[in-house]
Design goal:
The complex is a heterotrimer of chains A (about 300), B (about 475) and C (about 350). With about 300 residues, chain A is an all-alpha fold. Helix content of chain A is about 70%, strand content about 0%. Chain B has helices at about 40-50, 70-75, 95-100, 110-120, 135-150, 165-180, 195-200, 225-230, 290-295, 320-325, 330-340, 355-370, 385-400, 415-430, 445-450, 470-480; strands at about 5-10, 15-25, 30-35, 55-60, 65, 80, 155-160, 185-190, 205-210, 210-215, 250-255, 270, 270-275, 280, 305-310, 315, 345, 355, 405-410, 435-440, 450-455, 460-465. Chain B is α/β, with parallel strands linked by helices and about 475 residues long. Chain B folds into three domains: about 5-90 and about 135-230, P-loop containing nucleotide triphosphate hydrolases (Rossmann fold, 3-Layer(aba) Sandwich); about 240-310 and about 405-485, Rossmann fold (3-Layer(aba) Sandwich), CATH 3.40.50; about 325-400, no CATH class. Chain C is mainly alpha-helical and about 350 residues long. Chain C is built from 13 helices and no strands. The two termini of chain C are about 30 Å apart. The chains are: A mainly alpha (about 300), B alpha/beta (about 475), C mainly alpha (about 350). The interface between A and B is medium-sized, with 23 and 26 residues.
Chain lengths: ~300, ~475, ~350
Amino acid sequence: MIDPMAVAADVLVAAVGIATPLALAATGETIAERSGVVNLGVEGAMLFGALGGAIGATAVGPVVGLGIGVLAGVLVAALFAAVAIGAGADQIITGTAVTLVSVGLTGTIYRQFYGPAGVGLSLPTLSPLPLPILSDTPLIGSALFAQPVTTYAAAALIPLTWYLLFRTRFGLALRAVGEDPPAARAAGVSVRMVRTWAVLLGGACAGLAGATLVLAQVGTFTERMTAGRGFIAIAIVVLGRWNPVGAGLAALLFGLATALQFALQAAGLKVPYQFFLMFPYLLTLLALAGAVGRVKAPAALGRNEY
Amino acid sequence: MLLSLSGISKSFGSVAALRGVDLVVRAGEVHAVLGENGAGKSTLMHIADGLLRPDAGTIAVDGVPVRFRSARDARRHGIGMVHQHSTAVPALSVMENIALAAGWPVAPGQLRRRTAELTARLALQLDPLQPASELSVALKQRLEVVKALASDARILLLDEPTTVLAPTEAEELFNFVREFARSGGAVVLITHKLDEALAAADQVTVLRHGVVALAAPRAEVAAESLTEAMIGGAISVAARPRPTGDGPVLIQCDGLEVKGESTPGLRSASFTIRGGELVAVAGVEGNGQRELLRAVAQLQRPFRGLLEVARPIAFVPEDRTTEGLIPALSLTENVVLGVGRIAPWIRGHRVRRVDWSAAGSRTTELLEEFDVRAKGPGAAAGSLSGGNQQKLLIARALERRPRVLVAENPTRGLDLQAAADVHARLRSAAAAGAAVLIYSNDLDEVLELGDRILVAANGVVVEAEAGAGRQRLGEMMLRSGRPDAQ
Amino acid sequence: MRSSIRALGTSLLALAVGLLLLAVGLHLAGYDAGAALAALWDGAFGSWRAFTGATLLRSVPLILIGLGFALALRGGALNIGAEGQFYAGAIAAAWVGVHAGGWAPWIALPSVALAGIVGGTMWMALPVVLKLRFGVLEVISTLLLNFVAEALVSWMVQGPMQEPSGIYPQSAPIVEAARLPMLPGTRLHLGFVAALIAASILTWIFARTWWGFRLRALGEGPRAAEVSGRVRGNRMIAVALLGSGALAGLAGAFEVSGVSYALYQNLSPGYGFTAIGVALLARLKPSAIVLTGIVFAALEAGAGAMQRDAGIPAVTVYVVEGVIILVLLLGDAAARRGLRRQVVATGAVDGIA
């Protein structure tokens, strides 16, 4: 006998868990894209964040792991910024190359640290941190208020990012750079400086996202373990209409789409699991088709001439 | 003495844009910097504004030497710049654009109040919440002025401010500027229009080829000496044959409507143009003339109405380096691209091929014939100067042997000699039997070039009566330009 | 001429920097760099057998996909979903190959290749429609479809196309008639010749045809191509992207009918991404793509040997590939900045700057 309420609660818990790293990475990428930079290196930054998280957690503990993950993400973003912003190279190709380098380096470093492939790695993870009273709310209580600290971090990061973008002078300069770099320059804003900061912030978020994946969700590191989540985060930015709040909601949507398989499995439906693997990507594509066109991307997105 | 630039030199690569230029601007005066395109005016202003750094020379404000590393530095010293083209970020609101330029805090309530106070104080009304993309050209320029003055600038630099304005709008701007100077500010007015300098300025400095050719109080110089200082010689202008007006009708439109991207577009145009005629359209930017020309050039589909155009058609866009030429490609390649598949160097039918050597030798001939200064047909189009790019565009257009030739702002940014050459080419194309249709933001060019003149205002294109002068055209551009005047 | 020599110089520099960093990195990590590089060389070029059966064999998908990437990027479109199109082609080819019982080779082989082409093209059709109808960037849509394709292959080999015994996650083997013959004296299949032919055709299209020229114009200056060249940009990009997908699909078909003889998961070790480096290192020139395809294939073949003989993880080679691309980008950026300085200078004289 299946209790629908219990299933729904499980799905929600899983959805929020899956959504957390995506929301973190997508929020960071929103900052970068608002400044006019598409960073496909997010995938690489997440991967390095994951490895950094794993190394930090084995050496000291999960919280240190988070810190090292953030640092690793910033370093990867710095590599991207040096080539794409410093030298003004094509952003998409730079991002792809940075991700390629990250895949190779994390794989190599991982084997250096933990020996040849195949050794299962079990890491100390972040345990859920139930908030008193709130976590007892039926249905949504455990999903929203009994999550690891990183989920709360993501929840806090979204309004903070919104404030940064829309209520501070830096945010105004950043949006101006993303819309019209020559105009921003005429107003005395350094386009390269602002874009570099935006990309580094994005890298920090991606690093945190990768560490979260390892320390709050999976509990181990494997090669290429981000499996395209960085790319998904980029799609989520578009879905969220270049707004951190929208990105958070879109991440949650993606989380729900992925977590739905648990409900269907519980319901005894015989659908090949691969369909559940495909479903979120197809849903994202569909949503993109609906979302794009009705909202405009930052006008200078992906363009380097200024 | 408020602002003084002395001994300013600046080179780009091997080209010296400024050589030892001095400029002193005092409080209470409007100082015109006069010169033709390429004389170094804009470079000088960008140095005063902190966007460029001089190779040599000093800048002083109130007698104190200063060094600007960015536009922000210049602003801190009380210098405000009004750029020729709007530097407002289209996606941001009026008040956000002001905050960006002035470095104000962004909290919406406070920002809105502060913006309203500023526009009221300057008597330049703007809606703080309106996105800059929705402003008309004149309001965009008003926003530029407000931005420049938001951080209490005492020195206002205006770079060719009237290019985009109708005559009465320009007059309003000059009134404001004179008032600003009277209240103790200093104004530098950069212009290539002699009349403007004479009408608005107290002091005049003329630049030619990067050096000061003349500097004197307005009251002490005559128009003739200014012209001579600007040009340094006479412009050779070809004699002008008059059209006979009995050529075949090559362009005909009736009740033509074309949708625009953001502006109202073209709402109504009915006229015919015969072979041998050169017709010029006057109008403030964004009043439907662009849509009209692009529809005639078959680049935009009419929404409604009749439009018949003889072929072949050739089109010269105003944006030379994004719509006209591809800077990274060679001159030959650009010629091949623009002449299209009717060219003799296209071979084969089912699979068209390009005979590059034939195209290359023809390009070499064209460079010679049209006096395009370039290293050769293999040079990158981006390495050409603007004047030579325009000559190449015209050469390429005529290579199509067009019966209809359409050109947007054909002499924008060109020096006087290059502009005169372009005019001569357009006239001879008409004399050879083509129907030539152009528009220009420069009313003087319209008057000089057009056998007949059309005026575009608020999407409606009407023909001006023969012999209509500057004043009359200016009225037509504005009067029907107001939506309520329809 | 000078610019092409410069481009070649940058390409060689990028390759050298990539290998140098590999050697230094390995040395720092405590490996015997000399031995590692020797193993790499041996694995790639050490013997006729290694050269044809490992390096050239691996170069076939890299050349084909690289050509496709170049075709799209000439027109200004980025296809970073070749991985997905490769799998779509492989699925279609394997399906035909398995069901080609009783067919003559001269029917079966073209059918398999055609199936791959159709598969790859169809997989690209969705991004093309999304781009033209809804304005979804092809970068994002092709990328997302990679993951869908991987899941699809996984389902195929465990579901509808699984081999009859139902034990292994792979398809039934394709029939003999659908297997590409080997070039005499090698373990290199005929697909290599097909890749060379594809490269020559593209060379001709780019250098000689009106269409190829206008595609490049569209990539270099989209507005000018549309306004002054009257290029219908959308249509041309659609054709280039579909062609790009077709070439990746053909690569998938060749991999099935020339190497694996069955559909597997993980049939591609990331060819779709490696081929980006192949095409960029070759400056999108088809004839050069043949060369750089072989170079990258040698790297990957050698990496396998390096892992076997020197215990160095094969993924290290991705670092080399990524670094090569980054150095290329940096070199090009430096060259471009030189050109721009020239343009700014002339512009300033005209009062534009």
